Amino acid sequence: MAERERILKIRNLNISFKTDSGTVNAIRGVNLDLYRGETIAIVGESGSGKSVTTKAIMGIMANNGTIDSGSIEYTWHDENTGEVRTEDIVKLNEKQMQKEIRGRKIAMVFQDPMTSLNPTMTIGKQIMEPMIYHYGKSKEEAYAKSLELLELVGITDAEKRMKNYPHQLSGGMRQRIVIAIALSCDPYVLICDEPTTALDVTIQAKILELIQDIQKKKNLSVIYITHDLGVVAKVADYVNVMYAGKIIETGTIDEIFYDPRHPYTWGLLSAMPDLDTNDPELYTIPGTPPNLAVPVKGDAFAPRNQYALNIDLRVEPPMFEVPGSTTHKVASWLMHPNAPKIEMPHALKKRLEKMEKGGK
Amino acid sequence: MNKSTLKYIGKRLLISCATLLVISVVLFLMVRFLPGSPINNEKLSDAQRAIIEAKYGLDKPLIVQYVNYFKNMLTGDFGVSMNLYKDMPVSSLVGDAAKISFAYGICAVIIGSVIGILLGVFAALHRNTIWDTLATVISVIGVSIPSFVFALFILIFFAADLQLIPTMYDESQVVYSSIMPVLALSVGVIANVARFTRTEMISVLNSEYITLAKAKGLDGKTVIFKHALRNALIPVITILGPILVNLMTGTMVVEKICSVPGLGKLLINSIQASDYNVILACSFLYAVMYIFMMLIIDVSYGIIDPRIRLGKDD
């Protein structure tokens, strides 16, 4: 296997928002790596900070948010010289971000295609706009490339569609258009913020396949943000589980799905609906996420964690490496050599075993 | 403009005509049932009164009167003034007055909406800052204080004290004497449009397609002017029509204060004198304006917003 080429390297990222009820520490020391051609997923409940993290990468955070510390290093090959360049996005000013990074190197697909296209602009204009804007392409060039893109995202009748307005297309078509827009400037990284949540179930799988297909063709790196573990299982190479602004477990897809270690990950996996469970009730993780306007003491998940140790309430757990793996890391005191050995819930274990059998 | 748009306009015109027909009947009846009569000189004998009634056709049955009136109206003849301006043709009376009121109304709407939109966009972009508060205060003042108070204020301050503009309408100085009423009228427009624009702009700026436009890497100006403004202005246009019509009816007091010989003043005077034909023509003109304005707004709405572009194109 060729050397993996790192594109994004996020280290110790801290983001806070100033609100009326005080400062909310939305992101608390996130580390993340993204390699070329690979797919990572960020999984977590609403408000866990998944979207904020990616918005920080794009530099489109809300006005009241600030990056307090940390770095987001972005590495790319210069278009002209081909030399490798690395830049800390956090240090770039708004103008540089807008001219160099956003849209050009990192593009984004949004959650709801019904609202993410400008209702008063034709599809064609919306796809052509970034190319003309960033690369100074002529209208004809941009038009030709738009047609190509539309075909790439599986839209028939491309020429007719160019003249259409968003309201004339279905949700699935619109999401294809949004993807085409994201691809228009040949980015290296594609961030998909719950790209299928707002879509019909039948369309969901098609859109996911499309993104995977394009990823292969263009050797893109993709970041999925989702709370749908079904999506994660289908697309991701690596999974990052986020809770209360921290990544609490990270590993390959197999490690997270078949050998989860963090009680929160157990909870997430148990809460996934499936057809085999006889239990009349779907498991839910008790309690609610903590209020991040108040400083978190110890492990943020401890109050909801039935396996919490005393130390969880006092000291924040570091990232423990799972023995025998270089990729699997867990932020839980349960991983400490001196911690009592606690197994995942029996029902979940059976479920995962079944999944593993089914998966292989 | 394509075929379906034209068809739509045609349909709307037909409906408008039907509406106006109904309005003309209702107006005609209401005016006839007003207390008092155009022949209000108590010294007239019954015989004299009958002669005058016969002259204006008031002796005929109501239905015949209406049919005659309607027939004449179609030829552009709105009858003559019965007592206010003895036997002057109403069409020229109303026409002269309407010209002034129209010009004022349109000037006030143009000035008001340009300033109002700018103010609203400015407030939306500086949301929750001191600038936003300031703009909000201005528009709240503008909405809550009636235009004639502004007219009085301008009259006292700029015309009486500083003597920068004439205090009364002066036909030899049309532009100068128009400043006061137009300014007074546009204050309300500025306030309404600013408040509306601010709200719309804020909701548009929070929408996903603006985030997408930003994510495309467009600069702030492009995002605001190319993506946000157009979408924010669509609803603003819908309120411009009613504002314009309200202005024209609302000019009455301002016209009175500034002694402008406009439609409002004419309507008030004619009602006081029970001058049937003048009341009818003035009110009917307001109705026509209102309906016509709505038609224009609806059609232009379709041109600006493709979602309501009428009919299916393909």
Features of the shown structure:
heterodimer, A: 360 residues, alpha/beta, 4-stranded antiparallel sheet, globular, B: 314 residues, mainly alpha, 11 helices, flat
Structure report:
The complex is a heterodimer of chains A (360) and B (314). Chain A is built from 11 helices and 12 strands. By secondary structure, chain A is an alpha/beta fold. In chain A, strands 6-7-8-3-9-10-12-11 form an 8-stranded mixed beta sheet, sandwiched between helices. Chain A has a 4-stranded antiparallel beta sheet with strand order 2-1-4-5, covered by helices on one side. In chain A, strand 1 and strand 2 form a beta hairpin. The model of chain A has no long low-confidence stretch (mean pLDDT 88). Chain B has helices at residues 3-32, 46-56, 62-74, 90-125, 130-144, 147-161, 174-205, 208-215, 220-257, 263-273, 276-304. Mean pLDDT of chain B is 84; it is low at 310-314. The chains are: A alpha/beta (360), B mainly alpha (314). The interface between A and B is medium-sized, with 32 and 23 residues.
Number of helices of chain A: 11
| Rg on CA atoms of chain A, Å | 21 Å
Distance between the termini of chain B: 15 Å
Percent strand of chain A: 15-25%
Query: Which pair of protein chains has the largest interface, and what are the residue counts?
Result: A-B, 32 and 23 residues
Tell me the Rg of chain B in angstroms. 24 Å
Kindly report the average pLDDT value of chain A.
Answer: 88
Name the shape of chain A in a single word: globular
- Helix % of chain B is over 70%
Biggest β-sheet strands, sense, barrel of chain B: none
Q: Helical amount among residues of chain A, as a percent range?
A: 25-40%
N to C succession of SSEs of chain B: HHHHHHHHHHH
Mean pLDDT across the residues of chain B is: 84
Number of strands of chain A: 12
Low-pLDDT runs of 5+ residues of chain A are none
Uncertain stretches of 5 or more adjacent residues of chain B: 310-314
Can you count the helices of chain B? Answer: 11
H/E topology pattern of chain A = EEEHEEHEHHHHEHEHEEHHEEH
